[in-house]
């Protein structure tokens, strides 16, 4: 019998700025998977804008999840991202214990910060809590800042790392739970790298040319594509190559449009090319 896959997306809904659900939902749909949203917060614009309105969804998550349980919903994938409060760690753990079944792939994007700094709505306590999700994760996609936070090690000066350090970090992260992981946004001169680690295999640093200046939302485009492709049952390396190539294309186009750095990637133009 034919089966269309479903991913539960535990992430924020942000009205403007192209991040989280606004990006991941269309990408996952384009990958022919149904995306089912459990909101963690509702924001007017993302936290990279000078001001933002945030409606923390913590109190409503429990009845929302309870209703999904009552309706016996099941998911082939669970993808977690931006969290609105430290109390949400317990709620997400509850969700994972209930909905992670044999064959469910859990992807944790431990959204916390960038360039060695936390996003403005994040607290130290919330970052410590993020680590508790790792034992349930099959795949995680931290950037270097988030990898350092999870491992409780300092962010390297200027974000520079060696291959030996990346290997140690990836091994230590995998030791906290996930069998597979990607450390994203590695500075490699003119290039940007993704360090791909799968337990028992030789790690790989996949480099692509860095386009323009840094922009918000790249991590969410990356997490959306990786979640969709991994849940389709395809290899992580293929997911990472597809995500990196897609981001390169959309970055070039976004630069041509000369969009402000906090308006995310103009991915809509290329959405139908995703497979
Ligand atoms: N300027 C860029 N040019 C080309 N690819 C980029 C660029 N910025 C990000 N990417 C791609 O997007 C991925 C995720 O970006 P990253 O900045 O690590 O995410 P986050 O928003 O979570 O910090 C990178 O690993 C890389 O493949
Ligand atoms: C509300 C919200 N969601 C998600 C993100 C993650 O964005 P990125 O894809 O750049 O990691 C941010 C970062 O500013 C944010 O403010």
UniProtKB/TrEMBL annotation:
It comes from the Bacteria. Residues 73-255 form the Pyridoxamine kinase/Phosphomethylpyrimidine kinase domain. The keyword Iron does not apply. Its EC number is 2.7.1.35. Keywords: ATP-binding, Kinase, Nucleotide-binding, Thiamine biosynthesis, Transferase. GO terms for biological process: pyridoxal 5'-phosphate salvage; thiamine biosynthetic process. InterPro entries: PM/HMP-P_kinase-1, PyrdxlKinase, Ribokinase-like. Pfam families: Phos_pyr_kin. One of its GO terms (molecular function) is ATP binding. GO terms for cellular component: cytosol. CDD domains: pyridoxal_pyridoxamine_kinase. PANTHER family: HYDROXYMETHYLPYRIMIDINE_PHOSPHOMETHYLPYRIMIDINE KINASE THI20-RELATED (PTHR20858:SF17), PHOSPHOMETHYLPYRIMIDINE KINASE (PTHR20858). This is pyridoxal kinase.
């Amino acid at each position: 019998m034919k089966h269309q896959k479903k991913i539960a997306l535990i992430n924020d809904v942000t009205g403007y700025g192209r991040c989280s659900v606004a990006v991941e939902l269309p990408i996952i749909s384009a990958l022919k998977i149904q995306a089912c949203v459990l909101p963690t917060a509702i924001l007017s614009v993302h936290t990279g804008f000078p001001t933002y309105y945030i409606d923390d969804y913590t109190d409503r998550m429990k009845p929302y999840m309870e209703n999904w349980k009552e309706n016996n919903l099941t998911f082939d994938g669970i993808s977690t991202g931006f969290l609105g409060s430290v109390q949400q760690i317990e709620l997400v753990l509850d969700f994972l214990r209930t909905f992670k079944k044999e064959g469910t792939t859990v992807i944790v994007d431990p959204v916390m910060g960038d360039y060695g700094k936390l996003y403005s709505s994040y607290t130290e306590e919330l970052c410590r809590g993020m680590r508790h999700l790792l034992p349930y994760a099959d795949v995680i996609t931290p950037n270097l800042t988030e990898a350092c936070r999870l491992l409780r090690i300092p962010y390297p000066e200027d974000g520079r790392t060696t291959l030996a350090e990346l290997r140690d970090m990836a091994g230590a992260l995998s030791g906290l739970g996930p069998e597979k992981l990607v450390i994203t946004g590695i500075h490699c001169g003119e290039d940007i790298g993704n360090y791909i680690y799968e337990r028992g295999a030789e790690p790989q640093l996949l480099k692509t040319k860095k386009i323009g200046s840094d922009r918000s939302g790249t991590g969410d485009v990356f997490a959306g594509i990786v979640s969709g492709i991994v849940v389709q049952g395809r290899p992580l390396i293929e997911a990472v190559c597809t995500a990196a190539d897609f981001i390169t294309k959309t970055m070039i186009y976004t630069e041509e449009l000369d969009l402000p750095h906090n308006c995310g990637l103009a991915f809509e133009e290329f959405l139908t090319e995703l497979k």
